[in-house]
Each structure stands twice: as structure tokens, then as C-alpha cells.
Amino acid sequence: MEDVIDYKIPFGLLGQMVHPFLVKKQLQQIFNYREQKLTSLFGNMVGMENTIEFKSI
Questions:
Q1: What pLDDT shows up at residue 44?
Q2: What is the pLDDT of residues 17-48, one digit of tens each?
Q3: Running DSSP on this structure, what letter comes out for residue 22?
Q4: What are the DSSP E strand ranges found in 1-57?
Q5: d(CA 17, CA 34)
Q6: Distance (Å, whole) CA 23 – CA 18
Q7: Rounded to 5°, angle at Cα 57 from 25 and 49
């Protein structure tokens, strides 16, 4: 499963400075929760690697 999330941080340089502490942290929490929930419902998938990757464009 792959998710692509496009978003733009407001407030220019200030927003970019705050991003790692607020937005990125919240996104990681959301996807960590989803991974835990899916694993509890369906179990682990053998041979599948779970990674969260953030790319700036």
C-alpha cells in the first residue's frame, strides 16, 4: 500500500521551521496508528516491509 499526501506548509520560512516538530510528527502518528490497527485486524504480512518515507518536492 502506498499513500501520497500533497500539502503545503503556510507561513513561509517559519512554517518550514515548525514542520518537523508539528506536521511531520502528526503524520507519523497517523500512519503508525493505521499500521498497528491493520496488523491487529489482518496480522503481519510475510515478506512485506513497513516504512514511512517523507519526500520534499
A1: 81
A2: 888 888 888 988 998 898 889 889 988 877 77
A3: T
A4: none
A5: 27
A6: 8
A7: 55
